[in-house]
Amino acid sequence: MNKETIQFVKCPTCQKDVEWSDKSIYRPFCSKRCQLIDLGEWANEEHRIADKEISEQDLWSEDDLSDYVGKH
């Protein structure tokens, strides 16, 4: 008989150990509370997916500026 190795992960919100199995319905979170705290942080834009760093030059081109100045 093979025994499964039980894996644990840290809850992203409170760092509590969480069993990675079907028993842990909120995984990787330890609870609904921690899951909702994380969701709220995403909704408030406190978390972001990493991307290349954007400079001011990347945000505005000369064409964009001339369009803006010409219309106002």
UniProtKB/TrEMBL annotation:
Cofactor binding note: Binds 1 zinc ion.
A Pfam family: YacG
GO molecular function, one term: DNA topoisomerase type II (double strand cut, ATP-hydrolyzing) inhibitor activity
Cofactor needs: Zn(2+)
Signal peptide start-end: none
InterPro entries: DNA_gyrase_inhibitor_YacG, Znf_NHR/GATA
One GO term of the biological process aspect: regulation of DNA-templated transcription
Binding positions for Zn(2+) per the UniProt entry: 11, 14, 30, 34
Alphabetized UniProt keyword annotations: Metal-binding, Zinc
Gene3D superfamilies for the chain: Erythroid Transcription Factor GATA-1, subunit A
Superkingdom of origin organism: Bacteria
Oligomer and partners: Interacts with GyrB.
NCBIfam families, per the entry: PRK00418.1 (NF001638)
Family: Belongs to the DNA gyrase inhibitor YacG family.
Protein purpose: Inhibits all the catalytic activities of DNA gyrase by preventing its interaction with DNA. Acts by binding directly to the C-terminal domain of GyrB, which probably disrupts DNA binding by the gyrase.
Protein's recorded name: DNA gyrase inhibitor YacG
Source organism of the structure: Gilliamella apicola
Upper taxonomic lineage: Bacteria, Pseudomonadati, Pseudomonadota, Gammaproteobacteria, Orbales
